[in-house]
What does this fold into?
Amino acid sequence: MLTESGILELVRDDRRDEAIAALLPLYRRKVFGLAYSYLHHRDSAEDVTQEVFIKVWRALPSFDGRASLSTWIYTITRNASLSALRAQRRHASMSDPEVMAEVDQSTDAASDAEVDAPALLRMVNALPSKQRQVVMLFYMQEQSHEEVAAMLAMPVGTVKTLLHRARARLGASA
It folds into this structure.
């Protein structure tokens, strides 16, 4: 696997196809996770993920390096997710049968865990939007404070505050 500098070298050498092939395994899961944290619908998140990598492929030659490659990709993901959210104008809730099916499917793999995952996901889904996004990225996608801040275009202190408030709210509802 190439590093960010190796990928940028491919772009400079006008080898975009090879660069995107190297980017996909590095960022596919993270891009999907961020899109899913906004959209709460697997198919929509997959569509946005595909759209993001097409946009990245097209824009790679104009990447100027002012931000890291990962921050740039997460910004594209955030913007594409927000556009998709505005376009669909519907918000899935935990009472939506499709969402519950996905929750059931994801908890089957972790059935030996002692946590009531569907109940936990319902509580997380009830959080305000920003808190929910931060919790999903930090705990479920295992991103650092700094990565979450870059993905959501907010200061690290704001991420920590949102996590603190979300934990307090989750603790009160448990």
